[in-house]
Amino acid sequence: FYQKESFNVKPRYDCIETRNDVRTSTKFNNEANCTSHGGKWLLLYSYLEKAPGYTTQASCERASNSRYQYKWAIPHDTITVKEECLVLHPQQGPSCLQAPWTRSNYLGLNSDAEPLSYDWTVPSFPSNKVKRCIARIRYNISTFDYDLYNINSSSNGAKSPVRNDPIVIVDDGIRLQINLNTDQTGRTFQDRTHIFEILPRPNSISDNENIYNWNMLGKRGNIVQTYPAVEYDFTPRNLQINRNDLIHIQWTGSNTHNNKGGSDGQSGADGQGQDGL
Fold first, then answer.
1. 15 with 40: CB under 8 angstroms?
2. pTM over 0.85
3. Which residues are paired to 33 by β-bridges?
4. Going by C-beta distance under 8 Å and a sequence separation of 6 or more, which residues neighbour residue 101?
5. Do residues 81 and 18 make contact, with C-beta atoms less than 8 angstroms apart?
6. How confident is the model at residue 277 (pLDDT cuts 50, 70, 90)?
7. Per mean pLDDT, which range of 73-87, 105-119, 192-206 is the poorest?
8. Pairing between β-strand 131-140 and β-strand 175-177 as defined by DSSP bridges
9. In the chain, where are the structural domains located?
């Protein structure tokens, strides 16, 4: 359901209001209110990239092939409210997976004592241009300290079913205080946003060849110094490839490392500079 209904693969209608032929903001979210106030209820498309070289519907959609579908349509971020040639997202939809099991409070290791990860196939673009992208990673925590399936925003504040360090009465009237921090229950940890670029393949590498990214995780130091990160390591730790596959090795450092920490020697002595590594 989530894949079929995703805006990545299914266009959505929206209310378009204009001023001097330029799109403006709107407060209407249904067709009746939109059209009765002079707006237009139009079908908008999400897209992989635009193909401005095609200026007619016929030339645009004729460019479709086995890898990419070209569509003459209005993009979701339109300003001029005019149709353009769009390269649509792959039709299989985005991934929607159940999170793998992880031991509680154990830095996200799975049942094989390996860091949790997601295998991502980097998209390709028919224009072969550099693309600037954003990745947002959120670490969501659920808890069974309350009935999480029958609770919503109406239970906030004074109506919250949980309290910090509550005192409960157990057998024989014994008062027992529970070590509970509501900041650590049912919330989002480690909300991170990263900006990066996707580069086109070199001309010497065909589209049929697999390229595996071999990257770094963690920070320099021992496990105590790097917490809540971990020590430097490769990711994935165990990379299984075939004979003709290619590896793209990327090294990246941490800019939050304290160079004056123990076991690092003199500050900057390893050539890492004074500002972190």
1. yes
2. no
3. none
4. 110, 111
5. yes
6. very low
7. 105-119
8. unpaired
9. 1-96, 153-184
One-letter amino acid identity for 196?
Answer: F
**Which residues lie across from 17 on neighbouring strands?**
24
| Helix, coil or strand: residue 24 | strand
* Residues in contact with 89: Cβ distance below 8 Å, sequence separation at least 6, in sequence order: 8, 9, 46, 47, 48
Name, in order, each residue with C-beta under 8 angstroms of 123's C-beta and a sequence gap of 6 or more.
48, 90, 198
Residue 136 is inside which H or E element, if any? strand 131-140
The reported pLDDT for the residue numbered 271 is: 47
Distance CA 257, CA 275 (A): 8
The Cα–Cα gap between 158 and 3 comes to 38
10 Å CB burial of residue 193 (0-12, 13-18, 19+) is: exposed
Rounded Cα distance between 220 and 233, Å, is 10
Tokens 């799109």 — which residue? 23
How many helices (H) and strands (E) are present in the chain, helices listed first? 4, 13
**Helices assigned H by DSSP within the chain:** 2-5, 31-36, 57-62, 223-226
3-state helix, strand, coil in the chain (%, to 5): 15, 25, 60
Q: Which residues contact 193 (CB under 8 A, 6 or more apart)?
A: 134, 135, 136, 137
